[in-house]
Automatic annotation (TrEMBL):
A Pfam family reported for this protein in Swiss-Prot or TrEMBL: AhpC-TSA
Any GO BP annotation: cellular response to oxidative stress
UniProt main location, coarse: plastid
Family: Belongs to the peroxiredoxin family. BCP/PrxQ subfamily.
The UniProt record lists the keyword Cytoplasm: no
Organism: Sesamum radiatum
Name this polypeptide is given: Peroxiredoxin Q, chloroplastic
Alphabetized InterPro entries for the sequence: AhpC/TSA, Peroxiredoxin_BCP/PrxQ, Thioredoxin-like_sf, Thioredoxin_domain
Alphabetical UniProt keywords: Antioxidant, Chloroplast, Disulfide bond, Oxidoreductase, Peroxidase, Plastid, Redox-active center, Thylakoid, Transit peptide
Record bears the keyword Plastid: yes
EC number: 1.11.1.24
Catalysed reaction, written as an equation: a hydroperoxide + [thioredoxin]-dithiol = an alcohol + [thioredoxin]-disulfide + H2O
Amino acid sequence: MASISLHSNHTLPSLLHAQTPKPTFPQNLSLLAKSSQSQFHGLKLSNSSHLAIPSSASVRSSIVAKVAEGTLPPTFTLKDQNGRPVSLSKFKGKPVVVYFYPADETPGCTKQACAFRDSYEKFKKAGAEVIGISGDGTESHKAFAQKYNLPFTLLSDEGNKVRKEWGVPSDLFGALPGRQTYVLDKNGVCRLVYNNQFQPEKHIDETLKFLKSV
């Protein structure tokens, strides 16, 4: 029978370990921003920010919408850009356009907000109120509204509690907060859900088209 002779300084496990090639991976699988603050539509990243790959469970939960057409969305009370509490129930009796957006001052969100501003008279003519919601604080909302002369309400959903309760889906595997618009009728029932992350101005076209049709 053949035998294996080992040098006195080595054991069989150590030799096998030394001969087993180690798999190589890129040093950094994270997505890093190239500048101090990179903005892509609604995504803000700093040099130290890492875009982690979420688990399959979190991906599944991020694409399941809880508020659908024909349902009554959860109510909420959030602070507006002036620090005043605003409840969704305040707008009962008239149509309400509630749009969730990723963040103040990002290119896509600025385009969307300015498009709502430019068409605001058309929304008023349709008898509808416009409410924008993001996770930014009230001071950020105030500066954003003043800089672009936004005539409608911006609400601060710090911690994204309302976003989660409404089931707003995220993009880029959960890394980018979703851009989703809801139209509620005068009874508070959701009649339209529109999602389009990368064509923010389309939200205005679609919601106006819907309001004119009802």
